[in-house]
Structure formats: structure tokens, C-alpha cells
From TrEMBL:
NCBIfam families referenced in this protein's UniProt entry, alphabetically: yajC
Protein family membership: Belongs to the YajC family.
Transmembrane segments: 6-22
Superkingdom of origin: Bacteria
Protein's UniProt keywords contain Transmembrane: yes
Major site of localization recorded for this protein: membrane
Protein's UniProt name: Sec translocon accessory complex subunit YajC
Membrane topology: Single-pass membrane protein
Complexes and interactors: Part of the SecDF-YidC-YajC translocase complex. The SecDF-YidC-YajC translocase forms a supercomplex with SecYEG, called the holo-translocon (HTL).
Source species: Tateyamaria armeniaca
């Protein structure tokens, strides 16, 4: 019984860490994945490198094409998109 009593604080610390650190991080990862999967042509985005551009093409292989300036297009991995500044309306 005494051995179990010594593990109670350790179990409590793990429980607190789960609710304060692990669970919010998992929620943030799910939100980011949903944001990235919802990207479409015309969205204005910010990359993790700080570049702001407009999505011109969404490719199937985890890659998008972003126009940084007129005539300047770069290929970007979808997961490197940090924020979506403005969404476009879906095409009808």
C-alpha cells in the first residue's frame, strides 16, 4: 500500500501535464490540419517563413502554388502554411 502511495504524486503530475500541455497541442495540430486541407485557389496565406501570397493552384501531392507578386509563383509544401489571411468563397 505504501508503494502505491508513493506513485500518487507522479500520477497526478502526469495527469496535469496531459491536460495542460499534451491535449491542447493535439487540438492545435488538428485545427492546423483542417485549415491546410481546406485551402483553395484564391486564398491569401502566410507561410512559416513569413511570405504572404495568394494560392493559385492546389496540387494533390501535399503541395500548393503560391503567387507572391505578379508573375512570381513558388511551390510550397502545404504544412508550411502558418495562417490563412482571407478565404475565398467556394465556386458555384
Amino acid at each position: 500500500m505504501e508503494a502505491f502511495g508513493q506513485f500518487i504524486p507522479l500520477i497526478l503530475i502526469f495527469g496535469i501535464m496531459y491536460f495542460l500541455l499534451i491535449r491542447p497541442q493535439q487540438k492545435k495540430v488538428k485545427e492546423h490540419a483542417a485549415m491546410v486541407s481546406a485551402l483553395r485557389r484564391g486564398d491569401q496565406v502566410v507561410t512559416q517563413g513569413g511570405l504572404i501570397g495568394k494560392v493559385t493552384k492546389v496540387k494533390d501531392d501535399n503541395e500548393i502554388e503560391v503567387e507572391l507578386a505578379e508573375g512570381v509563383k513558388v511551390r510550397v509544401v502545404q504544412n508550411t502554411i502558418a495562417h490563412v489571411l482571407s478565404k475565398t468563397e467556394p465556386a458555384k
